[in-house]
Amino acid sequence: MKPGSFLKLVIAIIVSELAGLVGSLFTAPAISGWYATLAKPALNPPSWIFAPVWTTLYLLMGIAASLVWKKGLERRDVKIALGAFVGQLVLNALWSVIFFGLHDPLWAFIDLVAMWLVIIWTMALFYRISKASMWLLMPYILWVSFAAFLNYSIWALN
After folding, report:
1. Confidence bin at 31 (pLDDT 50/70/90)
2. CATH number at residue 42
């Protein structure tokens, strides 16, 4: 691996994990408080599972972004793809702010639908540049789809 490629990998992973860190600032305090009081669907996983799953997903997202980035920022398609990637990261972090920080499952669900659409768009853009990068996002879109079910169910139950 070239030194420049390794640096891009490290930066992409750090940026992705930072989105998770921002989200955790709002999530951690609410888990044992507000969130614990909510009615949840039967398929709701235990709270401890979310941190390792999200940490792994952010890692995969960072690797995917680095594969696209290493194709060169001088390419217009790379710039657009990484712009979409950053957009979905912002929506991702915003979800935690809305759901856990503002205690608003309905608006969080609306954010999640927008995030889901931007992830699909990002995957399509990544596929044209690096097929592997698109496949690295597959666990992410699957988990976000499950999260959408959970979010909607929590809103409906409460």
Report:
1. confident
2. 1.20.1260.100
